[in-house]
Design a protein that fits this description.
alpha/beta; Dihydrofolate Reductase, subunit A; two-stranded antiparallel ribbon; 10 strands
């Protein structure tokens, strides 16, 4: 079975974005980009919520073509254009985009079916609303929380009320020179 791996930046107090979606507090550098490339090398599907997909799709398809494109821009643009994208959205269900499937309705069933298909890992970057839905149905298999050394006090929460708890086991912790700590947890399946 394929795994869904969440990679998300969060503040120390558990916010994935500011009140208005701000992410200017995220610390990222080449060391982290190189590290995250190990995730993309092992994934052939990207899973997004509507807002995050729109943001990603407005940048990544051509990011590697720009004259000033960084090594990371070129690598991630190539990956983004190669992989299948799955977007959780009730408002975009009739939309069409290259290598993109829009999922609405019984999301849990459709994501379970996706996990049963042959392939590599499924990555979800950011997408707090989609993550809430996946967490409610316990569909995420592995969590990578990139904890940034900042406290926002309010914003878009990564964590939400769940009907049940999700038990995790720590796999690893990685420290980055920019001050970010990556916490890796796997879900305990009973």
């Amino acid at each position: 079975m394929r795994k869904i791996i969440l990679s998300i930046h969060t503040t120390l107090d558990g916010f994935a974005a500011g009140v208005n979606g701000e992410m200017d507090w995220i610390k990222i550098d080449d060391e982290m980009f190189d590290f995250v490339k190990s995730f993309t090398d092992n994934a052939d599907t990207a899973l997004y919520g509507r807002v995050t997909w729109q943001m990603m799709d407005s940048y990544w398809p051509t990011a590697g073509d720009k004259p000033d494109a960084t090594k990371h821009d070129k690598e991630h643009s190539e990956w983004y254009n190669r992989v299948d994208k799955v977007v959780l959205s009730n408002t975009m269900k009739d939309r069409h985009a290259a290598k993109t499937t829009f999922v609405s309705g019984d999301v849990s069933k459709k994501i379970q079916e996706l996990k049963q298909q042959n392939g590599k890992d499924i990555l979800i970057f950011g997408s707090p609303s989609a993550v809430h839905s996946l967490m409610a149905d316990n569909l995420i298999d592995e969590y990578w929380l990139f904890v940034n050394p900042v406290i926002l006090g309010n914003g878009i929460s990564f964590f939400t009320e769940l009907a049940r708890s999700i038990e995790l086991t720590r796999q690893t912790t990685k420290f980055f020179s920019c001050g970010v700590t990556a916490l890796n947890y796997s879900v305990i399946r009973k």
